[in-house]
C-alpha cells in the first residue's frame, strides 16, 4: 500500500526546478584571495578610500581567524583560494531602464517566474534584482523617492550616500564579528541598502531576488537597512540558484538598525541548490544576520523559510537595546537528502521591558539533519525582560535527525524566560486518517506539514506565504513512507 | 454491496482472521460483536485498506469490485468510510478546511465539481448542530485537544458530510458517556437509508439499545461463530461471550 523507499526517494529527488545556467559573458576574477583582490574589488566598485581601508582591516583580521567548528554540520574544508571573489555581468554599468538590461538576464528571471515586468505589474512590490554581484535593474525607485525612501544597491549607496553608509555599516555586525562576517567585510561585492526616514511608513514591500550564477563564484552580499524613528519597513528576500557540481560558498551579512518606535520586518525564502542525490554540490550558506533595536519601543522581526542549501549556518539575531523593544524570530527549516542546517537565533536583552518571541519549526526528511541553536541572554540591566521560545521538530522517516541546542543566560532576576520544545513524526496514523478521508498521500503530507508550519507562514507577507507553501509541498513530495 | 468470502489475514505472521464470511446489502445495518482480540478491529482496518495486515486468503467484493486491490484513498473516494476508534489529531490543520478538502478530493475523483463555499458552510453548520459538536471546534485543528466524546462526534460529522455508501464504525461507542453515545447513535440512525450499508463494530450491547441492527454477528477467534437478529445481542448481554466460545470450540 505504502510506496517503497526507493520510489519515495525518486520522487523527492526530482530535478531541482530552478537548475539552469544562463549563458552570459562575465567579468570574473580568477580564483584566489589576497590583498590585491580586495583592492581590486574596491577599485572596481569605485569606492571611497575609507571603505577600502575597512575591507583591508577586515581581511587582515580574517587571516588570523579559524573557521568555526562548533555547529552540528559536517563538510569538507573550504579552500578559500579556489573561489573567485568577483563576477559581474558585462554590460554598461549605469542603467536607465529595463531595455538596457541583458535580455538573457531578464529571461532568467522569467524562467524563475519572477520577471521584473511581472513584478512591476504586481501592485506594491519593488524589486532590486541582484544578478550575481552587480545590481542590474532597479524598479519603483521613483515612488519610493517621493516618500524619501532610499532603496538601492550598496555600491550605489557608497557612491551617493557615503556618510550614511559609513555611519551605520559594521555598527551591528563589526568587521571582526566572526570568521564569515570578516570574510564578507573584506570581499563583499554587492547587496542592498535601505534607508527609511523619520516617521515614514514605506509605501510598499521591498524585495530582492538573489541568484548565484557564475560557477565557483562565491557570493558575498551585504545588506544594510536603517529605519529612523517612527518609521516602518517590510523587506522580502527570496533566493534560488542554478545547478552546480562544486560547492559554492555564500557568506552574506545583513545589518538592521531600528531607531525609536521603528519597525523592521525581514522575510526570507531561501531555496539555494541543495546538492545532488549523493549529497554532492550544493550551496554552503554561512550568513550573519543581526538587527539592532537601538531605540525605545523599536521592533525587529525575522521570518525565514529555509528549504535549500547543502549547509545552512544562520542565526538571525536581535539586540534589544531600547526600552520596551521587541524581537521576533519565526523560522521553518527543511533538510532532506544530505542537507544539513544549524540555524536559530540570538535574542540579547539589554533594555528594560524588552520582549522576544522565538518560533522555530524544523523538518527533517531522508538523511537530513536539522539543528536549532538559540541563545536568549538577559543582561543585568534588562528589568522585566520576557522571552518565549517554541521549538518544534518534525521527523519524516527514520534516517533523519533533529537537534535542539538552547542556551539561556539570565543576569536579571525579574526576567521571565520560557522554552518549549517538541519532537514529532508524521505518523502512519495521520497519513492513514487523511487518506481514509479521500486525500492522496502527497496532499496529506502537504497538509500536515503546512499545519506544522502555520504559525510561521502566517508571519510572512501574503504572496510569500503562498510561495512558501508551494515550495514546501514540492520539497517534501512523497517524502513519507 | 459488500461480500466477504473466507477472508483470512495475519499480522506479523500471527493469524488473526481465520475465514470470515459476511454479506452486507444496501440499506442494512450489521453489528459485529465479540470479545477483545477477536479480530473485530482487524476486519474494519482491512476493509479500509490500512497497512500492516497481510491478507492470506479469501476475497472482498465491494459494489462488484475487488476491494482489496484499491488504495486507501480510492476506497474512500468510492464511498467507504471508517469512523475510527482512536481519531487522529492533525495539529495546525483546520477542521473545517480538512472536511472541505476531503469532500473535494472525493468529488474530484468522481469527476464532480467542487462544493461551493456557501452550501458547504450551510451543511457543515447544520450537521455540526445535529451531532452536538460545538461550532468553535470547527475552527480548531482537527481533533487537537478534543475530548474523547468530541472526537467521536467529529467522526460522525465527517461521516454525515462525506455521505459514504458503506460506513464502518470501529468501536465508536468506546469511552463515551450516555449522552454522547445517544448523539452518536442518532447520527448513525439519521444516515440510515436504503442505499447505504453500515457495519457497526462494538464490544458492548449498549450501543445497540439505540441503533437497531438488521443483523448481529459474533466474531470470536477470527471467525464469525454466530449470526442472528437483535435478540442475539441481548442474549450476549445476559450471558456474556463464554458460552459461544465454548460452543465454537466444541
Explain how this protein is built.
The complex is a heterodimer of chains A (481) and B (250). Chain A has one domain. Helix content of chain A is 25%, strand content 35%. Chain A has helices at 5-12, 35-44, 49-63, 103-111, 116-121, 141-147, 154-160, 162-168, 179-187, 428-436, 441-457, 462-475; strands spanning 26-28, 87-89, 125-131, 134-138, 150-153, 192-196, 205-211, 222-227, 232-240, 248-250, 253-258, 263-271, 283-293, 299-306, 311-314, 317-320, 326-335, 340-349, 355-365, 369-378, 386-396, 401-410, 416-425. In chain A, helix 11 (441-457) runs antiparallel to helix 12. The longest helix of chain A is centred in the C-terminal third of the chain and has 17 residues, at 441-457. Chain A starts with a helix and ends in a 6-residue tail after the last helix. Chain B is α/β, with parallel strands linked by helices and 250 residues long. Chain B is built from eight helices and twelve strands. Chain B has a six-stranded mixed beta sheet, with helices on both faces. In chain B, a hairpin with a 2-residue loop joins strand 11 and strand 12 (223-228). In chain B, helix 4 (117-130) packs across helix 5 (148-162) and helix 5 (148-162) packs parallel to helix 6 (178-190). Chain B is globular. In chain B, 43% of the residues are buried. Classes of the chains: A alpha/beta (481), B alpha/beta (250). Chains A and B meet through helix 10 and helix 11 of A and helix 2, strand 7 and helix 3 of B.
Summarize the main sheet of chain B. 6 strands, mixed
Pattern of helices and strands of chain B: EEEHEEHEEHHEHEHEEEHH
Task: Tell me the major beta sheet of chain A.
Answer: 11 strands, mixed
Q: What is the terminal-to-terminal distance of chain A? A: 10 Å
Tell me the Rg of chain A in angstroms: 22 Å
- Return residue spans of chain B where pLDDT drops below 50 for at least 5 consecutive residues: none
Give the total of beta strands of chain B: 12
Query: Can you tell me the residue ranges of chain A where pLDDT is under 50 for at least 5 consecutive residues?
Result: 1-14, 91-95, 117-126, 131-137, 210-217
Helical run tally of chain A: 12
Shape of chain A: globular
For the largest sheet of chain B, list the strands in their spatial order. Answer: 6-9-10-3-11-12
Using the alpha-carbon principal axes, give the shape of chain B: globular
Instruction: Tell me which oligomeric state these chains represent.
Output: heterodimer
Helix content of chain A: 10-25%
Measured by DSSP, the beta-strand proportion of chain B falls in 25-35%
What's the domain count of chain A? 1
As a percent range, the share of strand residues of chain A is 25-35%
CA-based gyration radius of chain B:
18 Å
CATH homology superfamily name of chain B: P-loop containing nucleotide triphosphate hydrolases
**Level-2 CATH architecture of chain B:** 3-Layer(aba) Sandwich
Amino acid at each position: 500500500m505504502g510506496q517503497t523507499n526507493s520510489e519515495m526517494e525518486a520522487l523527492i529527488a526530482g530535478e531541482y526546478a530552478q537548475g539552469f545556467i544562463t549563458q552570459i559573458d562575465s567579468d570574473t576574477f580568477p580564483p584566489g584571495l589576497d590583498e590585491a583582490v580586495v583592492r581590486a574589488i574596491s577599485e572596481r566598485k569605485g569606492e571611497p578610500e575609507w571603505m577600502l581601508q575597512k575591507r583591508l582591516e577586515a581581511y587582515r583580521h580574517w587571516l588570523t581567524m579559524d573557521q568555526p567548528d562548533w555547529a552540528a554540520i559536517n563538510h569538507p574544508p573550504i579552500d578559500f583560494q579556489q573561489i573567485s571573489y568577483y563576477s559581474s555581468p558585462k554590460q554598461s554599468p549605469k542603467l536607465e531602464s529595463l531595455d538596457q538590461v541583458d535580455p538573457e538576464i531578464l529571461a532568467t528571471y522569467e524562467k524563475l517566474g519572477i520577471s521584473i515586468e511581472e513584478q512591476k505589474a504586481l501592485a506594491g512590490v519593488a524589486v532590486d534584482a541582484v544578478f550575481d554581484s552587480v545590481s542590474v535593474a532597479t524598479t519603483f525607485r521613483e515612488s519610493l523617492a517621493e516618500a524619501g525612501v532610499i532603496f538601492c544597491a550598496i555600491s550605489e549607496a557608497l557612491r551617493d550616500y557615503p556618510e550614511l553608509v559609513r555611519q551605520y555599516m559594521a555598527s551591528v555586525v563589526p568587521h571582526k564579528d566572526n570568521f564569515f562576517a570578516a570574510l564578507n567585510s573584506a570581499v563583499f561585492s554587492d547587496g542592498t541598502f535601505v534607508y527609511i526616514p523619520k516617521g515614514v511608513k514605506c509605501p510598499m514591500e521591498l524585495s530582492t531576488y538573489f541568484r548565484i550564477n557564475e560557477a565557483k563564484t562565491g557570493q558575498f552580499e551585504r545588506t544594510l537597512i536603517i529605519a529612523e524613528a517612527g518609521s516602518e519597513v517590510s523587506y522580502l528576500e527570496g533566493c534560488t540558484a542554478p545547478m552546480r557540481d562544486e560547492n559554492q560558498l555564500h557568506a552574506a551579512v545583513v545589518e538592521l538598525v531600528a531607531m525609536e518606535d521603528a519597525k523592521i520586518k525581514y522575510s526570507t525564502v531561501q531555496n539555494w541548490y541543495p546538492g545532488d542525490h549523493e549529497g554532492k554540490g550544493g550551496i554552503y550558506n554561512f550568513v550573519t544576520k543581526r538587527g539592532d533595536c537601538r531605540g525605545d519601543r523599536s521592533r525587529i522581526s525575522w521570518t525565514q523559510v529555509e528549504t535549500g542549501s547543502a549547509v545552512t549556518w544562520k542565526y538571525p539575531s536581535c539586540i534589544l537595546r531600547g526600552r520596551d523593544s521587541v524581537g521576533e524570530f519565526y523560522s521553518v527549516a527543511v533538510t532532506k537528502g544530505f542537507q544539513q542546517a544549524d540555524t536559530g537565533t540570538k535574542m540579547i536583552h539589554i533594555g528594560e521591558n524588552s520582549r522576544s518571541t522565538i518560533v522555530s519549526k524544523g523538518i527533517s526528511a531522508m538523511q537530513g539533519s536539522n539543528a536549532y541553536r538559540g541563545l536568549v541572554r538577559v543582561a543585568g540591566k534588562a528589568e522585566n525582560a520576557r522571552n518565549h521560545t517554541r521549538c518544534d521538530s518534525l521527523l519524516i522517516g527514520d534516517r533523519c535527525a533533529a537537534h535542539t541546542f538552547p542556551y539561556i543566560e539570565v543576569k536579571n532576576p525579574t526576567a521571565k524566560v520560557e522554552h518549549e520544545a517538541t519532537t514529532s513524526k508524521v505518523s502512519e496514523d495521520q497519513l492513514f486518517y487523511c487518506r481514509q478521508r479521500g486525500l492522496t498521500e502527497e496532499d496529506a503530507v502537504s497538509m500536515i506539514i503546512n499545519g506544522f508550519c502555520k504559525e510561521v507562514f502566517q508571519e510572512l507577507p501574503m504572496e510569500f506565504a503562498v510561495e512558501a507553501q508551494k515550495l514546501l509541498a514540492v520539497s517534501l513530495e512523497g517524502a513519507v513512507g | 454491496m459488500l461480500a466477504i468470502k473466507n477472508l483470512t489475514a495475519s499480522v506479523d505472521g500471527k493469524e488473526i482472521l481465520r475465514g470470515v464470511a459476511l454479506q452486507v446489502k444496501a440499506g442494512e445495518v450489521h453489528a459485529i460483536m465479540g470479545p477483545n482480540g477477536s479480530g473485530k478491529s482487524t476486519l474494519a482496518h482491512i476493509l479500509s485498506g490500512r497497512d500492516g495486515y497481510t491478507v492470506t486468503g479469501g476475497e472482498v467484493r465491494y459494489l462488484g469490485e475487488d476491494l482489496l486491490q484499491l488504495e486507501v484513498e480510492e476506497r474512500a473516494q468510492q464511498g467507504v468510510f471508517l469512523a475510527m476508534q482512536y481519531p487522529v489529531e492533525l495539529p495546525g490543520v483546520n477542521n473545517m478546511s480538512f472536511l472541505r478538502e476531503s469532500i473535494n478530493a472525493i468529488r474530484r475523483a468522481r469527476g464532480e465539481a467542487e462544493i461551493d463555499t456557501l452550501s458547504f458552510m450551510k451543511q457543515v453548520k447544520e450537521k455540526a448542530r445535529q451531532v452536538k459538536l460545538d461550532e468553535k471546534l470547527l475552527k480548531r485543528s482537527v481533533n487537537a485537544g478534543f475530548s474523547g466524546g468530541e472526537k467521536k462526534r467529529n467522526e460522525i460529522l465527517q461521516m454525515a458530510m462525506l455521505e459514504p455508501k458503506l460506513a464502518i464504525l470501529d468501536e465508536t461507542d468506546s469511552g463515551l458517556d450516555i449522552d454522547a453515545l445517544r448523539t452518536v447513535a442518532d447520527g448513525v440512525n439519521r444516515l440510515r437509508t436504503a442505499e447505504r450499508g453500515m457495519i457497526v463494530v462494538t464490544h458492548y450491547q449498549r450501543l445497540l439499545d439505540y441503533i437497531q441492527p438488521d443483523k448481529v454477528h459474533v466474531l470470536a477467534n477470527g471467525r464469525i461463530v454466530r449470526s442472528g437478529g437483535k435478540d442475539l445481542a441481548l442474549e450476549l448481554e445476559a450471558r456474556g461471550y463464554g458460552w459461544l466460545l465454548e460452543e465454537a470450540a466444541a
